[in-house]
Amino acid sequence: MKTLRVLDSSGDQVILFDDKLSASKAAREAEALFTRLLNEGSTAFKVNRGDGKLDEKVTDFSVLENETVLVPRIVGG
Amino acid sequence: MRKQLTWDSQISMRRQTWIMPARTACTKAGLQRTQSRTRDIWRRQWERVQLACERVSDWFAPADPMAVADLRAKRLLLRLLSEGQREELNHNGYFSVNVQGRGVFCIFPRTVFNVLEVRSGDRYCCVSAADVPLWDLMLAQKLMLENDPSHFFSVANRKPDLVIGPQEMHQLLSLHARRSMGRWAQDARPPFST
After folding, report:
1. Among B79, B85, B99, which Cα is nearest to B146's?
2. Read out DSSP for B159-176?
3. What residues of chain A lie within 8 A of the CB of B125, using their CB?
4. Is B128 in contact with A54 (Cβ distance < 8 A)?
5. Does the model's ipTM exceed the 0.95 cut?
6. Closest CA to B70 of A28, A12, A23
7. What is the pLDDT of residues B26-43, one digit of tens each?
């Protein structure tokens, strides 16, 4: 089971999906959301990777690990 | 020999002897009658019950959504910070991020110009286009600085007006952090004091 966390006004929105069932509805919806948000300017990071691995920027849905944080588009303040 | 009185006659006698004169005296003295005082006591008790019910309903009612979002965001940030950054945030109210090739940057709990480059004293402002809690903004800034600094610096606005020495910098950082976190220590002295 993998987790997508989309940062929003409620803190974060959590989407859980099973990567083993790539054809499942939840996985397809998660992939569609991931793609749409990246196209809108969001940035995704693999976090909480374990074994001392550092966080990493990710752009491909197929290489997501256990937990991914989607940061909304950033602008200069 | 005393006459054996029935219950009714006893009540009647006592009513005539004690209760009626007492009521008359109370009325003359402007005092409330026993019945109305009892009603007041019950009214006050009922008000207390209603107040207790309101408190219980408040307890069960959903909390302020903004506060819930803030708490949720803070929990996520604390979980995703490294051990050192977490300790730094708990002790100083800010945490530092090591940006490859650029040095150390401090992220303060503020919404504008809250990213400070320690080496130069420059401040950067970069916010989320979506409305997110402050702790989510800090998390976003941390992730961007650590993993995609070129994108961060390409969009962030820079304000190069805070150039001071390292000793003063440390004092100022602590001061800013205490103010931002609302934990102003009584014994804290302003920076640059001799």
Report:
1. B99
2. E------HHHHHHHHHHH
3. 76-77
4. no
5. no
6. A12
7. 666 665 555 567 777 777
